[in-house]
Amino acid sequence: MATASINDAIKYYELFKTLQAKKQAEDETFEPLHIACIFSPPTQALASENDSTNDKNVKDIKQLQDGLPQEKADNQVEPEKKKAALIAIITDYIRPSFRC
Prior knowledge:
This protein has helices at 6-26, 43-47, 52-66, 69-74, 79-94. The protein has one domain (6-16, 36-94). 63% of the residues lie in helices and 0% in strands.
């Protein structure tokens, strides 16, 4: 699914996760979907980490965002919140909280 903004993607991710947890609590045979959500992290939040590997990542992300003006604009608002959301989403994807 594509969304109009990063905030919308985060909201949908959280909604799907909540609905699946509720469904799993109601029905132990329910097999939850493995949910993923991806967007470019805010470069200003990464730039503060200050290491050479990260500098290359920031340059690469800035180059990608030049072609994605909406994503670049979205990341100007609450960049630390978006960075934290992306870390949580990736962590959930790597180590799902649902039993499989």
